[in-house]
Structures are given as structure tokens and as C-alpha cells.
Design a protein that fits this description.
This protein is globular. By secondary structure, it is α/β, with parallel strands linked by helices. The protein is about 35% helix and about 25% strand. It has one domain: 3-Layer(aba) Sandwich (Rossmann fold). The structure holds adenosine-5'-triphosphate. Adenosine-5'-triphosphate binds next to α1. This is Heme exporter protein A.
């Protein structure tokens, strides 16, 4: 089982301390929500968890049975989804999907594409024909979720995964994160959505930071 361990982590931007002496443990098989008001450091917490950003002091480690994961093994364990991510707007959705999965060495056959697209509620025909620049924001969000599901990562770092989704899309997100946790994936969920917060097994509240 994978674990993410924060030990006495401090993080500041331009003299403003965002995270102060933060210690926390997130475990595989659980949904851990990261909550608190706008600007309290939820996205920063996820970026530190994924090693996309380094702490000023303290330590963030990803472990499996006491072994600290590093390099390629660490990279392949992680899937990250954030409103900051962008697709190539002039490529079709299918071209974008194949490109981003290809970066991880994953090639899906037609049936596998259909299966994962159905899970996120995108019609396979739309994926072949439509450039991502013509997708609605909600459709792009579903496509981000699709890349994550197909990535085979077992740590999901989800920054507001329900953003821009309709009720059915938000229900899909809840269904998939619960399924992910039941498959022992480690799920970190930065969110202000009450239903997503309600689905979590554990919560890290950054409001007092
Ligand atoms: N790369 C950066 N450079 C400078 N300041 C940053 C950077 N990243 C985050 N910050 C600042 O750190 C603080 C925390 O930002 P963060 O995005 O982690 O908050 P958040 O809780 O995710 O907010 P929201 O709920 O609005 O998404 C904010 O004041 C933000 O402006």
C-alpha cells in the first residue's frame, strides 16, 4: 500500500507562509480530502504531495512498505488533475488522449478507449472528430478525468475534479473516486464541494494555517 507522508512542512511564497509546520499521512485505499477556504494552500499541498514543488523545510515522501519511491517509479505512480492543466486545442480529443497516455508508455486499443470514455460520459465519436478547442469546459474536464483513469496510476492527486461539471458529471467523479479507493488507490482530493468532502474517509483541514 502506498502512503504520502508530510513531516513538519513549511511553504511560503514571497514571504507569505502558506503551510506552517504541517505533518500529515495519506494512505492507499482511502479518499483524503484537503479542505479550507480559497487561498489556504490546497493546491500547494497537492503539488508538494506529487513532488512538483519542494517544501522550504520539512519533508514529503511517498512510500510503499517502508521503501521511499523515487524517479521513474514515483512518476508512474502519480496522476494529477488540476484546472491549471491544458490540452492541445488544435488536436482532436483522441489525438490528445493518445499523446498524453503515450508519454506514460500506454497505448489503448479501440475497445479500451470506448470503455474508459463511457466511464467519463464522452461519446467515442466526439473524441475522434472534435478538436479539444471546440469542447465545452465540462467536456475538457471529463477528458482530463479520462486521461487520469487510463493512466494506471495508483496515486490520484485531484484538484477540484468536479469543477465545471453538471450533476451527472459530479456523480461520475464521486463514483470513480469511490471505485478507485476500493481498488486501493491513494486519493487526495482538494475540494470545496460538500458532496466530495462527504465522500472522504479522512480530511486535512488547512483553514487554521
Ligand atoms: N507559484 C506561486 N507563486 C506565488 N504564490 C503562489 C504560488 N502558488 C500559490 N501561491 C499563493 O499561495 C496561496 C495558496 O494558493 P493555493 O492555490 O495553494 O490555494 P488553494 O487553497 O488551492 O486556493 P483555491 O481554493 O482558490 O483553489 C495563495 O495566496 C496563492 O496566491
Amino acid at each position: 500500500m502506498k502512503m504520502i507522508v508530510f513531516e513538519e512542512v513549511d511553504k511560503s511564497f514571497g514571504g507569505r507562509k502558506v503551510l506552517r509546520n504541517l505533518s500529515a499521512v495519506c494512505c492507499g485505499g482511502q479518499i483524503t480530502s484537503v479542505v479550507g477556504p480559497n487561498g489556504c494552500g490546497k493546491s500547494t499541498f497537492l503539488k508538494l504531495a506529487g513532488h512538483f514543488m519542494l517544501p522550504d523545510s520539512g519533508r514529503v515522501t511517498i512510500k510503499e512498505e517502508d521503501m521511499v519511491l523515487q524517479g521513474e517509479e514515483l512518476r508512474m505512480s502519480l496522476a494529477y488533475m488540476s484546472p491549471e492543466l491544458r490540452f492541445y486545442p488544435r488536436l482532436t480529443a483522441l489525438e490528445n488522449l493518445s499523446f498524453f497516455l503515450g508519454l506514460r508508455g500506454i497505448a489503448l486499443d479501440g475497445r479500451q478507449y470506448e470503455e474508459v470514455l463511457e466511464r467519463v460520459g464522452i461519446l467515442p465519436e466526439a473524441v475522434k472528430r472534435t478538436r479539444v478547442g471546440e469542447f465545452s469546459t465540462g467536456m475538457r474536464q471529463r477528458l482530463l478525468f479520462c486521461v487520469m483513469l487510463a493512466s494506471k496510476a495508483d496515486i490520484w492527486l485531484l484538484d477540484e475534479p468536479g469543477a465545471n461539471l453538471d450533476d451527472e458529471g459530479r456523480a461520475m467523479v464521486l463514483r470513480e473516486i469511490k471505485r478507485g479507493a476500493s481498488e486501493q488507490k491513494l486519493i487526495l482530493l482538494a475540494t470545496n464541494d460538500s458532496r466530495e468532502r462527504g465522500a472522504a474517509d479522512e480530511a486535512i483541514d488547512l483553514s487554521g494555517n
